[in-house]
Amino acid sequence: MNNILILGGSGFVGRSVCDKLVERSGGAGGQIVVPSRRPARAKHLQLLPTLRVVQADVHSATELRGLVQGVDAVINLVAVLHGSAAEFERVHVELPHKLAEACKAAGVRRLVHVSALGVGEAATSRYLRSKAAGEAVLKGANLDLTILRPSVIFGEHDHFTNLFATLLAVAPFVPLAGAQARFQPVWVQDVAAAIVRCLDQLSSIGQTFECGGPDVLTLKQIVEQVGRWSGHERPVFGLPDMAARAQAFLMELMPGTPLMSRDNIDSMRTPNVAGGQLPGLAALGISASPMDSVLPDYLSPGRGLARLDRWRARHGG
């Protein structure tokens, strides 16, 4: 399978998947296609050999049907963490439906879909419920489907640890919503490797893999570690639920993408931890890397100014 379409390939996880796929191809032919509504934002991919960035709206059924023509497999990484019920439905449910229809029309059977830990019809948040609905759509489409459910994903360019590192650099203390929420942070390179291995292993068809790192940590523990690694240790204290929801509501009113939403708080009521009933990274031959073996270099104090400048540019500060 050398002709691969990656939906969401220009994002945080996508850039690592693209690197792994280019390395996998080894110049053996084929092409990796990454559609983007704003190709200029995918400059970091433009120089990769065998990879082509094309301007397209993947939410358009017509454009999606054209994109899947002639490909061997599709990887779907498209997701949103914030939004209205309609936005979650559009991205997590309607897009998988359009994708399944496009694949069937083009005779493309192989699909690797990235979902999330904690999904379920009765889950605690719209995010998790919509992710479950999207999985159900694809499972009912009679495709050669593999699903990966990662915990929170960390890495050099993530919006998770980098956000906290930036806040810790400017705030004297951190009032934290969901402080006791449990996560099993997984390195983006491990998730990308799992996606590529699933493409190559026919035994992964029909399976769902839980992708978690070796450690289970509370959000408070993660933020405290980020403070140590970035050279900005600060007091971190948890907020009561009512105060946390009020804080999230105010953040939703701010311009741009909110730092936290009430739906995020609802998601954190479900432990973001592998249940142990499904195969994990080890089943794909991957030994998961802990945060403390990866992030101290990325979050080092020497990178703090550049990180703060990026945050100000994104939020108009």
In terms of DSSP E residues, the strand content is 15-25%
Order of H and E elements: EHEHEHEHEHEEHEEEHEEHEHHHH
Radius of gyration equals 19 Å
Number of helices: 12
Strand arrangement within the widest β-sheet reads 3-2-1-4-5-6-11
What is the CATH class of the domain at 4-154 and 184-211?
Alpha Beta
Average of pLDDT: 91
CATH architecture of the domain at 4-154 and 184-211: 3-Layer(aba) Sandwich
Shape: globular
Q: Which regions are unreliable across 5 or more consecutive residues at pLDDT < 50?
A: none
Helix content range: 40-55%
Largest sheet: 7 strands, parallel
Topology, number of strands: 13
What structural class do helix, strand and pairing data support?
A: alpha/beta
- Distance from N terminus to C terminus (CA atoms, Å) equals 45 Å
CATH-level-4 superfamily name of the domain at 4-154 and 184-211 = NAD(P)-binding Rossmann-like Domain
Q: Which helices and strands occur, and which strands form pairs?
A:
Blueprint (H helix, E strand, L loop, with lengths): L3 E4 L4 H14 L6 E5 L6 H4 L4 E5 L5 H8 L4 E4 L8 H22 L3 E5 L11 H14 L4 E7 L2 E2 L6 H10 L3 E3 L5 E2 L2 E2 H13 L7 E4 L5 E2 H12 L5 E3 L2 H13 L8 H6 L27 H4 L5 H12 L2
Helix pairs in contact: 1-7, 3-4, 4-5, 6-8, 6-12
